[in-house]
Amino acid sequence: MANASTSTTAPALAAHRLASIDLLRGLIMALMALDHTRDFIVGFFPSPTDLETTTPALFATRWITHLCAPGFLLLAGIAAFLQRGRRGPVGLAILLVTRGAFLVALELTVVTFAWIPVPDRSLILLQVIWAIGWSMILLAPLVLLPAAWVGLFGVALAALHPFLSDVLAAMGIADWIRVLLLDANQTLTWGESTRLIVSYPILPWFAVMAAGYGLGALIQARPFDWPALAARLGLILILGFIALRASGVGLDPEPWRPEPGGVRSVLSFLNCEKYPPSPLFLMMTLGPLLLLLALFERHGAGPARGLLGVFGRAPLFFYVLHLYALRVVGLAAAALTWGIGNLGPPPQHSAPEWPLWAAWAVWALAMLAFYRPTRWFGDLKARSQGWWTAYL
To answer: Average pLDDT of 123-150?
Structure first.
């Protein structure tokens, strides 16, 4: 695909994919696979972000994957706006509602079973696919409004959401609603025996998608120089994060503190809260993502272009494929390590607890193995252009 910044006009951007979006999405998919490989091969303990027990290598392996969830939501918002010109606001709203509902259903069934492979459905995880699905549903009615309003609303919500839980409590809103909307790492009970673990509350992540939707309007309005705009926004977010984090402004629940040795101090500085994402976490991750988007648009991805482009064009297929494949590999290795009779749902001997370098090695081999099936599915989507391609 030709570089959109030099060969497209504003109307054309509404009808065509931007190569840079596919490349960045492909990088995000690769990083996500690394994070899940670490879960399935190294295990859940020690926690990579617990500064008392982590190592710099383990922390860094986890930290680079923090780009994934914000990247998913940001790019989904940009892509939604770029589809608006082709589908119209009503058509786009219908697509967002139906695809969002499909993703929510997928999270509750196929995705949860990959994480908790037990048939009784006693534990359901509400993670990133859940958040993306509900964010699409919430975005649907807003596409009838000016995109600038939607984008500004997203930015305001990203900054203010930590204060909304107390506001909703004062209004008498039920606790379970507040948990689903705003509070992460909470457990809800559904029926007599089913527990729902809310890892990704809806509103903070919807804020990122809404901001991305507004950014999509800027990209369409400035087809030739939008990478420069994205780069400037990214630098502003990074510098703003550094200034606010250093100042100790309470935009993250855990203020940083100097640690013995310079490396530990850096880890503390970067150790912002993801569950739910604090405003500083979003600044810390969205800044580099915007820089990468601008870089890929101007210069491509070099030798990695083919690999990242393939993963970025079929993200949902890759998501399900990698999750089940890596889960099978992890369980097989765990069975050899602990004995099949000792296996259980996470964290009960569901990973072999191999060293970190082994997780990197398994991830590299997995990425090579996933390339051909993902390319096949991406080519199938491109040839078909059927209605189903908008959902997968």
So the answer is: 96
